[in-house]
Amino acid sequence: MGRRTIDSLFDRNNLSNVNDNFFELYQTINNINIDTSQEIEEQLSNVTEQLKSYSKELNDLNLVGLNYKMGEDLFNKPPEGISYSNYAEITRDSYFSGLNDRYSSFGNNKITILPGGWFFYKIKIDSFTENTFTMVAKILKGASVSKVQYRFLDEGQLIGAATDFDLLDAENNIYGGVGIQIKSGKYLEIRFDNREASSNMVIENPVLFEGSEIKATDSEIKNIYLNLNRSNIQNNDTNQTELINHYSVPVKTPNEFEIKDHVLKDRIMTDGKGNFSVNYDITTNKLTGGQTYYVDIINGNDSNDGLSEEKALKSIRYAVEKSKDNDTIFIKEGTYFRYAGALFAKDFNKSLNIIGENDKVNIVIADQPNWNKTSGKTKVYEFARSSVRNVINIKLNTPLKNVGSIDEVDTTTNSWFTDNTKVYVNVNGTPNDNIVPIIAGTNFQVSVLSSNIYMENLNFIGGNNGVQLNMSKGNKAYLKNVNFYHSNPTFNGIAIVGGDLAILENCEASYNSYDGFNYHVGADGSLPFIVEIDCLAVENGSDKGTAGVKSNNGTTTHDGVKSIRVNGSYGRNDGGNVADVNSGTQSWNLGCSAFESYQGKDFQIASGAIMFLDNCTGFGSENSINVGNTEDTIYTRMGYYQNKLIAGKEILY
Fold first, then answer.
1. Which residues form a coiled coil (predicted)?
2. Cα 581 from Cα 610, distance rounded (Å)
């Protein structure tokens, strides 16, 4: 996605003179949150011309600079069926503090408040780096006595009276303020008050930013953790074809990138404006010629032959035992625990297709829990299980907090403790099978392959690594819609070692103890060529910047491995978000974003590595680009980078 910064000028005391422009800008802000990247470019271009046309008229006034750029909207818009508090928990929102509402409802980016009701939205401001805020909202419906206000609060006390927002655009009923001063307090409360009205109040798409800026919100930032119904945001085959036709110009491989005849040669397309797509169908790499074995945790039975859905097996373990090279294992929706002490055999050595029915196929390195109330405790439940490394809420895809004793569990909601014989949890109720103790052990590990492996629609949870592919020269791996979460301490989400080629499309590696995506040379000296397309890696590296300099990354290549990443998002990882190291290592990154590293490094190279950045974006870290050694070289073309620390060379190409 292209990134642009547009400088514009507004007179805050004469905003009525630019109402029409302000309304168009507001519409653009909200549309950008859901449109495709091409539509964003077109709208930004239009806004640029609009701002040019009227900033000349204001240049003699008392002006306030207003940057229009990508940012984080602090006013949450939860999907239907998720409360504001749950959404904040899922997305790890550090700003949301609470919601005080009555007779209100929300959905489709609208808030509806009945007569006598209110909607007071509170955020934390004590960690703001600027002493101003900006809020804009459109009131679709409201009485003259309906109020749009803000108020500052401290712990347990109000600070002054509520203050009315300005009516910025009377014709379109736009309320808000730009660069409002924060004088005191730890909290800001945005208040939509309909208590005195006799009719409904309806608010559309309120937006809230730190500072004196209105920004186009990047949905990747706020919703980066939200993995509910991911299929809704993927292009279907028709849309993908239209997209490829629109992005009609092939991107040439950089001259200095060593591998010229790679799998994506002439298949990476651009619109010429810095947007990219990939014309490649990974599903053509499925193995052929074998049988299909079906697995169904709900209706299956391991005494069946597994050769039809009606006679499906119950456990993955038995399907693997029955299968031979080139067979397919088709896994129905459900959560699959260890069975008879195993999920997959550790010395996995078969070239198979392993395909899930949809995105709700969970493969968990855990025994199915049987929770019982702990005697003498108020909220604690227990399960007899040793070697527990973590406890995960599978439904929310979040870990519980590890505390130091059973008593502490009893007083701490969403916590766990183990005495190495039993595991104890407090989830403020009776835990179900979604509360899972992850144990030490391997989830899925390939040791030898006769040819290739293909995987699709699988969620691997836990493990020493979540998935480990130990390949040799001649082996290839293809992964589509495969996710790797919550690896055990000192392990990665996915580790690929050796082989000829690994392509990962729309895969996610998040919340892992070490790296998300990790790639190394093989034991036989083979160097896998790595391709990541539309992949995501966030919150990897469990230390979160608290244990000094560590290299726990979102995605990382080593040992001379070559890679291409297209349209990936990598953020909030302990170390460098995108980190490539060692002499001979090269990566070509197109349209990727990296942000908010706990150690302050977005795109990082060291020890002789070379990196190419084509219209990538880095923000929210101390250094968007970090070139650590004099022998390192980074090539950049277009893009947006807030800060750079370059000990080696940067070459514009």
1. 37-64
2. 8
Determine how β-strand 361-364 pairs with β-strand 452-461: parallel
CA-wise closest residue to 608 among 647, 640, 572, 563? 647
State the pairing for strand pair 381-384/372-373: antiparallel
Q: What are phi and psi of 124, to 5 degrees?
A: -85, 135
Close Cβ partners of 546 (under 8 Å, ≥ 6 residues apart): none
Over the Cα atoms of the chain, what is R_g?
Answer: 26
Distance between CA 513 and CA 507 in Å, rounded?
18
* CA dist., res. 627 & res. 634, Å (int): 7
CATH architecture of the domain covering 84-222 = Sandwich (2.60)
Q: Is 290 exposed, middle or buried (0-12, 13-18, 19+ CB in 10 A)?
A: middle
Residue 320 to residues 70, 221, 429, 444, 544, Cα–Cα distance (Å): 47, 39, 37, 12, 37
What tens digit of pLDDT does each residue of 403-424 get?
A: 999 999 999 999 999 999 999 9
- Cα separation, 497 vs 350, in Å, equals 17
- What's the pLDDT at 2? 31
The string of pLDDT tens digits covering residues 140-190 is 988 888 999 999 988 767 777 899 999 988 888 889 988 899 988 889 999
Report which secondary-structure segment, H or E, holds 408.
Answer: helix 406-411
The residue assigned the tokens 């979604």 is 434
pTM of the complete model beyond 0.90: no
Q: Is 291 helix (H, G, I), strand (E, B) or coil?
A: coil
Q: DSSP secondary-structure letter at 87?
A: H
Q: Residue 417 corresponds to which tokens in the numbers above?
A: 């403790």
Q: Which amino acid belongs to residue 99?
A: L
CA–CA distance, 523 with 500 (Å, rounded to integer): 13
User: E strands along 486-632, which residues?
Assistant: 494-497, 501-505, 508-510, 517-520, 529-533, 536-538, 555-557, 562-566, 569-571, 578-581, 586-590, 593-595, 601-606, 610-614, 617-619, 623-627
CA angle 495, 548, 419 (to 5 degrees): 70
Cβ atoms 133, 72 nearer than 8 A: no
What does each C-alpha distance from 240 to 235, 494, 532 come to in angstroms?
6, 27, 17
CATH 2.60.120 range(s) for the chain read 84-222
For residue 623 the two structure tokens come to 């250094």
β-strand pairing of 452-461 with 476-485: parallel
Q: What kind and span of H or E run contains 436? A: strand 435-439
